Amino acid sequence: MNSLINYCEQFMLAILRKGKIPRHIGFILDGNRRYARKIGAASTKFGHYEGFKQLEKVLDLCMQLGVEVVTAFAFSIDNFNRSKEEVDYLMQLFCEAFDGFCERSSLVHQYGIKIKIIGNLSLLPANVQQVAYKIMEETKHHKSRILNICCPYTSRDEMTTAIKETVQSVKEGKLSIEQINDETIQNHLFTSDCPPLDILLRTSGEIRLSDFLLWQASDGCQIQFVNCYWPELTLWKLLPVLLEYQIYSDHQQQAKNNSKMPMFIK
Question: Which of 141, 155, 167, 180 lies closest to 26, judged by CA?
Fold first, then answer.
C-alpha cells in the first residue's frame, strides 16, 4: 500500500511540475496541540513532536516540486506567554530536532538547502541560540534552496528591526532620509535574500495570519487556509492550493500577453 501511495504522489508531483511552480511558500504550522487531543495522546507535547517531524516531510515535498524557499512559522514571540512547561519543552524539542539535523537528514545535502533561523534570536535560551547559529554556519555555503525557520518571530518585530537598521544607516551617513522608501525597508527584512512570497498557507482552519510575513504577503501573494491540522498536511491537501496557484498564474500570464498585443484601429 505504501509503495502505491508513493507512486501516486510521484505521479502527481510530475504533473504539477509541468505547470508554474511557486518559488516561495510560507507555512503557519498550526494545530499541533489540537491534533494531539484529537488522536487521544497523553500529552499535547506529542503534537509538537509530530509537528517537527511533519516539517521535514512537507519540506521534502516542496523540494521535489522545485520550490526554492520554504518559510515556516515555528514559534511566535507571543508563544513565550504560554506555560513555562510548554515553552521549555518546545525549546528542548528545537535543540533535539536541529542539533545534528544536517547529519540525520539527507535533504540538506541532496538539495543544497541553506537553513536560516530568523526572528529575534536574542530571546532564545543560550543553548538554543548555540544550536541555531551552528546549523546556520553548517549550511551557509548552500546556494540552491532556503529553509527559513521563524523562531521566535512576529512581523511587528521584523518590521521594527528593519526600521531600526534603516535609521542606523541614516545615522552613519550611508543613506539620506529622502532615499528611504518601501524598497529600503524591504531590503532590511529577514527575507531580503529570498524571492517574493507566492503562497502563504495556514493549517487548522483558523482564518488569521497571526502576525506572520505581513509585509511579504501584502503584494500578489495567494493566502490559503487549509482545514486540517499541521501534522495531517499531505500532498493531497496541498494539491488544490497548488492547482489554484497554477491556474491563477496562467490567467495572469495570459492577461499580460494580451496587454502586449498591438491595437488595430479600423
Answer: 155
Please give the grid coordinates belonging to residue 158: 521584523
Ranges in the chain, pLDDT < 70: 1, 253, 255-256, 259-266
Domain 20-153+196-237, CATH homologous superfamily name and number: Decaprenyl diphosphate synthase-like (3.40.1180.10)
Can you give the residue ranges of every domain in the chain? 20-153+196-237, 155-189
Q: Give the residue from 173, 266, 155, 261 showing the smallest Cα distance to 216.
A: 155
| Of 214, 178, 172, 180, the residue nearest 197 (C-alpha) | 214
Residue 182 CA to residue 170 CA, distance in Å, equals: 15
Distance separating alpha carbons of residues 21 and 242, to the nearest angstrom = 8
pLDDT tens column, 83-98: 999 999 999 999 998 8
pLDDT value of position 254? 72
pLDDT in tens, 244-257: 999 988 777 676 67
